[in-house]
Specification:
By secondary structure, the protein is mainly α. It has five helices and three strands. It is globular, with a radius of gyration of 15 Å.
Amino acid sequence: MARQLPPLVGRDTDLLTLTAQLCRSDTHLSTVTGPGGVGKSRLAAAVADEMTRLNSVTVAVVDLHGATTAEEALRAIADSVVDNFGCLIGERANVQEIAEKVPDGDVLLILDGCEQVTENLALMVRELLSWHNEVISPTLKA
Ligand SMILES: Nc1ncnc2c1ncn2[C@@H]1O[C@H](COP(=O)(O)OP(=O)(O)OP(=O)(O)O)[C@@H](O)[C@H]1O
Ligand SMILES: [Mg+2]
């Protein structure tokens, strides 16, 4: 990945645990929680790098800082899918349309800052996962 991050300090166990979880075929969703500034985004970035290295996973990071409504979150997810997979998604795309644009193969979708979306995010993620498994049949992990 092109990002230049300072080295990850003291999170080896968390990195291993989370990566192992995401590698399981029956795990489609993992959540990282903790107080502000504790290192959730940094850990997620490390997991993304590790998953890319280990599994030919395509990582799409969605920055949800600043998104508060479901519509804004959906747009941010669509933008990330467009950026990462080079597809076209209309301005008012629904979850199904977005899921169908995610290509075959394992995809790791990182919803960074999702706690700020106070509206229906869990439902949206559930729908995204269901469409993804049904329509494209790889795993989509957040
Ligand atoms: N294990 C770590 N090793 C090195 N740097 C770290 C580590 N954890 C966090 N940092 C650094 O500390 C700062 C805060 O971390 P980060 O942004 O990941 O926290 P966060 O939990 O995501 O915060 P927020 O809840 O505000 O989103 C960043 O500059 C990050 O690079
Ligand atoms: Mg963060």
